Amino acid sequence: MASLELKNIVKRYKSQTVLDNLSLTVADGETLVLFGPSGAGKTVLLRLVAGVIDPDEGNILIGGEDMTDVDAEFRGVGMAFQNFALFPHMSAFDNIATPLEARHSSQSTIKAGVESVAKLLKIGHVLSHKPRALSNGQKQRTALARALVGAPPLLLLDDPLRNVDAKLRFEMRLELPRLLADRGATVVYVTQDYKEAMALGDRIAVMSQGVIKQLGTPEQIYREPANIEIARLFGDPTINLLDVKPSRDAKGVYVGLSNVQVHLPAAYETAVGRDCVIGLRPEALSFVDGGAPGAIPVTVEAETPLNEKIVTLVRTVRGREILVSRPAGTPGQTEGKAHIAVDSKSALLFDHASGERIGSKNVVSLRNGEAA
Amino acid sequence: MEHTSLLERFLRGAALTLVVIFFMFPIVWIFMMSFQTNETILRIPPQLVFEPTLANYTALITGKLTTAAGTLDIAFMRNLWNSVFLSVTSVAVALLLGVPAAYAFARHKFRGSEDIAFTLLSFRFAPALLVLLPLTLYFQKLGLANTYIGLIWVYQLICLPLILWIVRGYFEDIPADIEYAYRIAGHSWFATFRKIALPLAGPGIAAAGLLAFIFAWNNFVFALVLASADKQPVTVGALAFITSSGIQYGQISAAIVLSITPTLALALYAQRYLVEGLSLGAVKG
Fold it and tell me: Which residues constitute the signal peptide according to the record (chain B) (predicted)?
């Protein structure tokens, strides 16, 4: 078992800084997802931990031991690559066996080890095949088996589901958490798919341009995104973002949406009079009768089923387009004039200029209390 | 449809035949000449029908060349052996030095690596005649003139850049992740080089080795100047057939047939390594 600690990591390529003074701790047995757009530095970070590239500054501690200057083969980590990186001239069996061979295990130990992990990943029947004879799904499982076979205390998974088809990705997304939990290993998992991140991560680190923008549980990232960018990346359909300028009246802080006053939690007091962007998750909006308090008149434009949800595109009187989502099978307006209401408790308010969420510094207190 | 496709096939066949005849004719003609005497070769008009003789081959193998002016000693078999020895050793040395160097240039970008690699390539730019004179003087001072070691050394000018640059390209084509994966699995860099990089660059190494062998085999100028009779390869030795009593076309042809046989055999053997794909579908593109 091993924790992972990164201290002030800096990595530059020529003049470009890929990782900028990055620090991160992953607890023993925890699964941390590194999430972010391509070029954010996720893969570089993973390779630094694996030891195949060296940081320009900073320290890497695995299990409390400083591994910064230790060669890759002595770090004892397991890694699965996005492009699988199988050895094309070896059979699947030999591919999976390489970590065991490096330890000079006996032939019978190797055979037993490879076969048990192959059975776990359901590739026992293709062990004699060369990589070119494997399907993408089998390649991916072989790569995963190779990373798992040596029971490494620290597992690095670099977007292993990137190159497999949607069906398999869905299956693996369900299968992986159990698989990883069973191994008890500390896992760093890189992905660009927010659903994967939400499904697999004990915590998610959202990376962008070489720094961690937000670190928290999937719940926190979704409910309290640090900025507009993160709010937009998590959630499908995407969050509705509308320019607003909050005001105050006797009942508290409110924003005007299509001339209807929507009152916000008192925590947004500081936002009064500032140019803001309000973020409304599609599921925080619902169709209501015209007479209901806070009902906003809209026109239904289109309706699209999305898996277990139905997403409706509506247009406000000001001509702004908004997505409303509701569980499939529940009644809703399908055409013409309608009214929607806002669940103002879950509304998110961002500063227009910086994109930072207003009140995001209170994340810690919210995390502990979740008062309102 | 049937008709046009038939005509097309016929035309294609005819065109292919023409091309093959055009390229193979000299070799076939030389092969035929090697079984004829000088008199039948020089007949005008040339004739396809002749009485084959093995005299040319016997002369080469026994080393006794009988001409109108008397019997001459020729060292053809010795020359052939020299060619084999020099080419094989040179390519072996070049592979031993060049393949690890190519790997270093491909995988480790160190200060001046590009400059060193380019300098090695530039050996191929200079005309051989330009370097020959200073080389001869140095070699005489060093006692390397007319030695196998000296010749093999000079042959590195031909073989090493070729192998280095071709093999380097093949190493660069191996995705670095494959090597990283082997390192992370717990193997040393040397094991990675041996078990991953070498087998995957195998076709490239075979191609480069074959090409270097052909270049070394065909070399003329270096051996002409730096080697005396007993160290000369066939390319230089063939000059002996231009005798005072005329050019011995029959023996020259037989000599050519004998001297292209090893390269041809090697090329046919190495062919299967050359056509083998490199990446073998390990990495999704």
Answer: none
| pLDDT one-digit tens code per residue, A172-226 | 888 888 888 888 889 999 998 888 898 888 999 999 888 899 999 999 999 899 9
- CATH superfamily, domain B76-275, is MetI-like (1.10.3720.10)
| Residue B199 touches partner A, C-beta closer than 8 Å | yes
In tens, the pLDDT along B14-69 reads 999 999 999 999 989 899 889 988 888 888 887 778 888 888 888 888 877 776 66
Q: Do B187 and A73 touch (CB under 8 A)?
A: yes
Determine how β-strand A154-158 pairs with β-strand A186-191: parallel
CATH 2.40.50.140 fits A232-369, yes or no: yes
- Which CATH number is correct for A4-227, 3.20.20.70, 3.40.50.300, 3.40.50.2300, 3.40.50.11690? 3.40.50.300
Parts of chain B belonging to CATH 1.10.3720.10: 76-275
Can you tell me the distance from the alpha carbon of B105 to that of B48, in angstroms, rounded to the nearest whole number?
Answer: 55
Portion 67-126 of A in contact with B at CB < 8 A: 71-79, 81, 83-89, 98-99, 101-103
Pairing mode, strands A65-66 and A240-244? unpaired
Q: Does B198 touch chain A (CB under 8 A)?
A: no
pLDDT 10s digits, B206-265: 888 988 998 999 888 888 888 887 888 888 888 878 777 778 888 888 988 988 888 888
Compute the distance between CA of residue A299 and CA of residue A277 in angstroms, rounded to an integer: 22
Are the C-beta atoms of residues B115 and B180 closer than 8 Å to each other? Answer: no
What pTM was estimated for this model as a whole?
0.78
Contact B184 A79 (CB under 8 A): yes
Q: In the 3-class helix/strand/coil scheme, how is chain B assigned residue by residue? A: CHHHHHHHHHHHHHHHHHHHHHHHHHHHHHHHHCCCCHHHHCCCCCCCCCCCCCHHHHHHHHCEEEECCEEEECCHHHHHHHHHHHHHHHHHHHHHHHHHHHHHHHHCCCCCHHHHHHHHHHCCCCCHHHHHHHHHHHHHHHCCCCCHHHHHHHHHHHHHHHHHHHHHHHHHHCCHHHHHHHHHCCCCHHHHHHHHHHHHCHHHHHHHHHHHHHHHHHCCHHHHHHCCHHHCCHHHHHHHHEECCEECHHHHHHHHHHHHHHHHHHHHHHHHHHHCCCCCCCCCC
CB contact under 8 A, A87 and B187: no
